[in-house]
What does this fold into?
Amino acid sequence: MNQAAGSKAKAIAINVDGLYEKHRTVYARSVTGIFSSWRWGMVFITQALFYGLCWLEWGGRQAVLFHIVERKFYIFGLVFWPQDVIYLAVLLVISAYGLFLVTAVGGRLFCGYACPQTVYTEILMWIERKIEGERPARMKLDAQPMNPRKFRLKLIKHSLWLLIALWTGISFVGYFTPIRELLGEIASFELGPWEAFWIFFYAAFLYLMAGFLREQVCKYMCPYARFQGVMFDPDTLIISYDRERGEPRGLRRKGAAATAKPLGDCVDCSICVQVCPTGIDIRNGLQLECIACAACIDACDQVMDKVGSPRGLIRYSTENALDKHYSAGEMFGHLLRFRTLLYSSILLAIIVATAWSLAHRVPLKVDVLRDRSTLSREADDGRIENVYRLHISNTDASTHRYSITVSGIDGIDIVGERVVEVPAASSTTIALSARVEPRTGNKGSNEIFFDVRAEDHDKIAVREKASFFLP
It folds into this structure.
């Protein structure tokens, strides 16, 4: 009985162990080629924007700043307030449709060339290669027991990784706290708790994800890898292995007998596997771990050049192009299909509508609050008076003087400040009174309008509705 139970438990343990793949370290081999150059070009572009944009000034302030404390968001000449959250929603929709379109056309191009995980992994791996050497040297070094040389190389590598991660964290927080103020706080050891938390959190996150987890993020943690198949179809450009041309694999030997079995172009060198950052074999077909970095294409093209075979054994192609032997023109012609045209149309419509909205956006916001403690009162001159508070927000990048008028009831007039100056990207609250003759209007609530207009720009004007109470 006990023996049977033990055998059953052992069988269950074996089955459970079989559900999980044992992790093996991926030692990606470096590769050069056109796609590698494009990938590094994207690394330079994205990081130049990320590290440099927070230092760019615009009109005496940081050009791009999401100032959480002041609740103002500066993007060059535009100033957004929390009330403008609709633009954030639109930006997310544009990003989503842009991702859908790119994926429908070219697969996981974003993952291979612009994803932060890919970009920072490339940077940290480049440092690793420069310090520890190429793939065989790194494998040999990791297999060695700890010794002074290994400790020194690992210490230098991880120190550089941490410096990059820390500076990245500082740059990230520099978009929410002005970067120059942030560096001043760091230098004087007066860094706030939230800034310190996010700097070290972001730095630790980058260090862990790009330095250690690497391909595991793409394989197990990224949700995009899981639903990418839904956005693919047989006419989506993917990295493909030409099985008809490559099989059967094998190394051609000089002096082989004429009766020997003919071989395909694949020499089974496995270099395409060695350069893959996720460690997959593209010859097994499309896999969710493939991030479309095209390193295998560059590597295979170099091998084809050496053995004297045409390039393109591994290439960007589509399932239909491989199965139906499309020409390049026919393959690219099928990229313009219903799905891509639909995504493009929706994306273009949203972008045009957003651009029109931003171009016609009035950089002025007015909120009118009536004093509810006193509905109405009789003033010294015998007229009926209601008291209001006007909150005026100048969302423009320059200072404006605004004139205030009121309408809606015959003879209504303002008593108090009629002109107010509001600095750029600032707001102010003023108190004023509106008065009418006692027998003017209807008893109870009457609809009135406050018109606030910039004296130096006729198109900067807002009409805000309010109510005037008559006893």
About this structure: Residues 364-470 form a domain with the Immunoglobulin-like fold (CATH 2.60.40.10). DSSP finds 17 helices and 16 strands in the chain. The chain has two domains: 23-361, 364-470.
